[in-house]
Input
Amino acid sequence: MPHRQRLAILGATGSIGMSTLDVALRHPDRFRVVALTAHRQVERLFQQCLAARPVYAVLNRQEDAAHLQRQLRDVGCPTEVLWGDGALSEVAAAGEVDAVMAAIVGAAGLVPTLAAVRAGKRVLLANKEALVMAGALFMAEVKAHGAVLLPVDSEHNAVFQSLPERRTGDLRENGVRRILLTASGGPFRTTPIEKLQAVTPEEACAHPNWVMGRKISVDSATMMNKGLEVIEACWLFGVPADRIEVVIHPQSVIHSMVSYDDGSVIAELGNPDMRTPIAHALAYPERIAAGVAPLDLCAIGQLSFEKPDFLRFPCLGLAYRALELGGTSPAILNAANEVAVEAFLDGSLPFLAIPRVIAEVLESLDGGAADSLEAILDADARARERALSLLPSRNWRPDES
Ligand code: NAD
Ligand code: MG
Output
């Protein structure tokens, strides 16, 4: 049997993590899952360990790890359970691992993903926040350590599939005119603006096309997700923001496109199911079954497109602003967004206040150079502190600007 790819899934119990395990377990001849990590979902991780029998499992807290270890021992599962942030980086860089699925949500994914990069792994990147926070450093480390970086975010995976296979240097020299990032517009694309103030977390998380974790669902509703993706695309493909165009495409069938100098536009299409980009990244450059139904274009009938509305979705503009400010400003944007989204999800911040909190943090803190992990983590911490200090200081009603 040829060597099986040994896989670590960081954030295994999340939406991307579960889809990754689903695809990997369909191909036991190709993949051996050697590590699974979760924050606190002990029961789900237990079930996953039974299904995949990894060498390592990681949880955040020692008591949860001890509990899971006992449960596994009782059923004869040989998995060793580790705990804490350090263990995430340890398994990401472990000698037994060939490929790492980076699917932790938010800034918490940066350090372990970077550990995988520094160990020269094949890194399947779902955790866009890592690249938003640390783009220049991250890409430099990929190069320095010979890591292979494969995009899992559906838009970036679509762009990757639509770019010329043998390309050298700048995309411009390869006849690429623009990257067209598609966006569904989320659940509030056509909601009357006056109704947005009162929307609930449940409404914001009810995405019309994709089933995702709660944080990215809110990001899709504010369109910060697309803003983060513009920044992600700049780093992944080495292009400036003015060569990336966001196109609203409510059906989410075209996952993104590349427009060429000769007038051609190459797109990747499929059903909105993350197992497609996950399977693509897992097997690249080969193709494997992902359990995804084939696309039925006649049943879909119509594909439509429109321009994004920057007034309705100020978060999109804020992401461009962070790019323009440069340095650690994207890390500040990301951290302020994480704090604001969490406050919205726990009911303490109205939906429309999310961009206002972020704007205030972004404009009030000094971006500084993003030349070391310490500088980036320091900016992240300052932005969180500033955002948290803003939350209780107002009632954030629309009349109070
Ligand atoms: P999720 O909330 O469903 O899952 C997050 C995972 O990370 C869980 O396993 C959780 O236990 C773990 N986690 C959370 N906080 C942690 C911490 N502090 N330390 C260690 N582990 C922690 O999220 P998701 O929707 O699967 O998204 C994961 C990442 O993939 C995000 O960066 C998101 O932007 C990106 N992404 C998701 C989708 C999607 O369809 N869900 C699509 C594209 C990109
Ligand atoms: Mg995406």
The longest helix spans residues 128-145. The CA atoms of residues 356 and 401 lie 9 Å apart. The domain at 5-152 is CATH 3.40.50.720 (Rossmann fold). The first strand starts at residue 5 and ends at 10.
